[in-house]
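Annotated sample (chain length 264).
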Amino acid sequence: MTTCNRTYRMRALAAAAIALGLALSPAHANNDEEAVGRASVARIMGAAPLHASQELQRYVNLVGGLIASKTDAKQNWRFGVLDTESVNAFAAPGGFVLITSGLLKQIGSEDELAAVLAHEIAHVTRQHHYQAIVRQRNAEAAMKGLQADLGKDGADFAALSKASAVLYARGLDKSTEYEADLIGVQLMTIAGYDPSAHLAVLEKLDGMSHGDPRMALLTSTHPSAKERIDYLVRAGIERLPIPTASAQARTARFNRSVRAVLVK
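Output written by the structure step:
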């Protein structure tokens, strides 16, 4: 990579991070939940940086923002694409949602992207990660005879980051993943997307999950794709309405903003 290209890439990464509000420390957060989210995102981005394509970041934020607008959550939503071949997506407290370029390469439409983002948005609205980290921090504080106070007055960034790392490596309870699937399907349907796309994503993940190293973290922290498909079928996903609007425009947007960038 030439010095010119390297400089351009570094500037693009910095611009993406600032635009997404991911460059500030927890000390700048508006509340405890956002402080935890910022520490979590910093931990994740320490392992995988943001993708340098501003067009890709803009597009994912547009799709995610549309779905998030259908919730009642009062969050400052921010979405980002991580530059890694790992196949995964992450939600962090305070309105942060990240998806890997590796997962984006596996999905084939805007509706499938909407399914992934809606699942992560549901985690945020139900405070799944936030509540788990609060419980962990409270337990640690109780053992030390201290009062747990997340996010206030420049809370201990290292402690928040460590708590986040433990949670993302261990994963949430199965029940929270099923709940996020169900709420996510409902959100994407309300936003005008085809709910069957969620099943399509899970079927693709099921086809990859047998020993693929790119799937290692996802498969170790989630119920199997087959279990998730069975849950949604039992919950009546096939009774949800299919959008009447043509998918051609959505497909064109996806091809222009995702496939043209990632699939060379």
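Annotation: The two ends are 18 Å apart (CA to CA).
Annotation: The first strand starts at residue 78 and ends at 82.
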